[in-house]
Write a structure and sequence with these properties.
mainly alpha, two-stranded antiparallel ribbon, 64% helix
Amino acid sequence: MPPRKKRRPSSGEDMSAKKSRQDSVFRKQEPSQICEEERFSSKRCLEWFYEYAGCDDVVGPEGMEKFCEDIGVEPENVVMLVLAWRLDAQSMGYFTLQEWLKGMSSLQCDSTESLRNSLDHLRSVLNDTTSFKLIYRYAFDFAREKDQRSLDLNTAKCMLGLLLGKTWPLFPVFNQFLEQSKYKVINKDQWCNVLEFSRTINLDLSNYDEDGAWPVMLDEFVEWYKERQIS
């Protein structure tokens, strides 16, 4: 039996097949085109950086003020601390070019709009216990003067208020204690133990162990607080 000849499609069928192939190609290309548009751009990120850095390779206080204004966040807002942590910024009030490019790349942000869209995500990081502890520890080194090993008391109170003011009911009382205390600085051990104290000690301090390995500063706070409760 001779082989059957392939039927040549009519002109209408031919056009239909061609359109089908084009649609198929378009469907394959469309996601990649969208991906290309949404992909992080180092060049765009660099241009964005120099909007605030000017001719320098660092965004300073003036540039930082404009940056905060553009993204709609107060400089004292805790989300700025989270952003600094993600950029691994070493000095408060400054972002270097290297910090900016590396950090914004990890966030996939290369414009004001893209960062604005990421602010809710940055705020949500504070709800994760492990991340919050890392940010809290980072804040001590970020805020201290680099030639000092401790944090001056006024800066410490500001940072504690930023990090614990809304979540630790005893913070206002602890802040009062610091104001009337002999302490002028807070060292890193004291700083880290304040977080542990806020997480583990009951509001009535009933489970505080005076013989535990707490810093003297917290022993003094507990004693001061209990005396106030009695009087």
